[in-house]
Structures are given as C-alpha cells and as structure tokens.
Write a structure and sequence with these properties.
By secondary structure, this protein is an alpha/beta fold. Helix 5 packs across helix 7. One of its GO terms (biological process) is phosphorelay signal transduction system.
Length: 237
C-alpha cells in the first residue's frame, strides 16, 4: 500500500524504535492520543527496527538517531532501500546537527526534536504518512544554524549552488518546489495549484531528478537554501 492512500485505508500504522524504554513509552503515549494512529511494533535498536518493519509493513517508522547494533541513519537507509512505502521520521536531540544532515541523505522524510511539542510528533507522522516531508521548526533552525556555522563563505557557496540547481527548473516546478519546502503533500499541492494529483506527482519526480536529490526533505532543504519560500495559504493572503 502506498503512503498516499493511508487516510482512506484506515489508521496510520507506526513503528517506534528507541533504545530507551521510557522514550518509546512516551512516543507511544503521544501517538495514542490520535485515534487515527496505531503503534504496531516497538524496537530497541536499528537492526530490530528493520526486521519489524519487514514483518509489519507500517506506514511510518519513527527512529531514534543513536541506537545500538544498527543506528537510526543506517536503519533508515535500509528501510528506504528495501521497503520504500514506509516513510521514516527521525528523532533527534540538540547537538546532533551532523546526524540530521546525514539522515537527509539516508532518505528520512521527517525530523523531530525529542524535546519538541507533542503536536509536532503527531503532525510529523501524519505528514510523512501522506507522502510529505516534515521538518519541525526547531530542526529547520538547527540545520540553518549548522550550515551558517561553517562560515559565511561556505554558506554563500551553498546558497549559490542551490540557486544554480533551481535555475534549471520550469516555473511550474519552482512552484511545486516552494510547496515542498513548506512540507505539503502531493494532494495539498494539487489543491493549492488547482492540478490533479497525478500531475503533481510527475512534477515532484522531475524536481527531485533535476535537483539531484533522493527525497522530498532534501528538496525542501534546497528550497530553503535557494530562498524559495512557500506562498501563504489562500486565507492568509
């Protein structure tokens, strides 16, 4: 089952992986407040997480970054390689900025700070289940700060490189990229741009290919680096 059809097919099935039992219990408790989300399995390390994803085929896997045996980043890469219909949300803590950037390359679509608000966890799981990317505001701020810490010259180079990559997009693809930067799903983008969802899906695939990235979250980072901001919702204009 594709993640895009989860809303119509029943509850969002979630796996939670963290080596700390209290963290797993807390994540499960937050997710249990949403009747549309069901935790189907828990894992104490990345290796077990991959095995349980294969067994249960959840819509979303919520993975801690640092876990024994197999860490969250390697587990995310294996899940995305072998079970692409399962979206991955990474749980991080402050001071793990390098891990966040590495997780982008592993195919994770959601990034949350463990100390964040419970509503962010629910929103992130829902967004990734719907095929969108989700960067919590705190994570996005940390990524930007981390990139900036490498020096003004390096940051300017990243911005220039991002703008150069974006320059190859068509006007419509730039619109789609802006909405990807805002974390919208294909269905939400279709409604905003008055397109059919299949057309948006084709545009998204083209955008990822032209930018040379593997997933929507990485495309969202390029959008932010290039200064392409999502337009406000119609009711806020």
């Amino acid at each position: 089952m594709s993640r895009a059809g989860t809303a119509a097919a029943g509850p969002v099935r979630v796996l939670v992986a963290d080596d700390e039992p209290m963290i797993r219990a807390g994540v499960r408790a937050v997710l249990a407040t949403d009747p549309g989300i069901e935790v189907v399995a828990e894992a104490a390390d990345g290796h077990e997480a991959v095995e349980l994803v294969r067994a249960h085929r959840p819509h979303v896997a919520v993975l801690d970054v640092r876990m024994p045996r197999t860490n969250g980043i390697d587990a995310a890469a294996e899940i995305r390689r072998t079970l692409p219909d399962t979206g991955v949300v990474m749980l991080t803590t402050f001071g793990e900025d390098d891990y966040i950037l590495r997780a982008l390359g592993a195919g994770a679509a959601g990034f949350l700070i463990k100390s964040g608000e419970p509503e962010e966890l629910l929103a992130g799981v829902r967004a990734v289940a719907d095929g969108a990317a989700y960067l919590s505001p705190k994570v996005a701020a940390r990524v930007v700060a981390h990139l900036a810490s490498s020096g003004a010259g390096a940051l300017a180079e990243r911005r220039d490189a991002a703008r150069e990559r974006v320059a190859g997009l068509t006007p419509r693809e730039r619109e789609v990229l802006a909405h990807l930067g805002g974390g919208l799903s294909n269905g939400q983008i279709a409604r905003r741009l008055h397109l059919v969802e299949g057309t948006v899906k084709a545009h998204v695939s083209s955008v990822l290919a032209r930018l040379g990235v593997d997933n929507r979250a990485a495309a969202a980072v390029v959008a932010h680096e290039a200064g392409i901001l999502p337009p406000p919702p119609p009711e806020q204009r």
